[in-house]
Design brief:
With about 90 residues, this protein is mainly β. It has a domain of about 45 residues. Helix content is about 0%, strand content about 35%. It is built from no helices and five strands. A hairpin with a 2-residue loop joins strand 2 and strand 3.
């Protein structure tokens, strides 16, 4: 997945369904930084036997990301474009 062109939207962080525990499996996740105003969609990948965040075509260690997580998200089929995703209800 390439999220390079996905805009960041200000999405309020609801109290339920979010967790400060980092993901333990690959997939697509919502992420809200501790000091941030925006929630972003990121992809967690297994690289060199460790989980990493794939963001802007870079792999960054998951341990460097501090904030709230929600996911993994269930993507339904292939996205119709790089900018639009269809998510199943959780």
């Amino acid at each position: 997945m390439n999220y390079e062109s996905i805009p960041q939207y200000p999405i309020p962080v609801p109290p339920d369904g979010w967790d400060s525990t980092p993901p333990t499996e690959p997939g697509a996740y919502w992420f809200h930084r501790e000091d941030g105003l925006h929630t972003i969609l990121v992809e967690i990948q297994l690289k060199d036997r460790e989980l990493s965040v794939c963001w802007l075509d870079q792999h960054m260690p998951l341990t460097e990301w501090r904030g709230l997580w929600r996911g993994p998200l269930k993507l339904l089929g292939e996205p119709p474009s790089r900018h639009t995703f269809t998510l199943s209800p959780q």
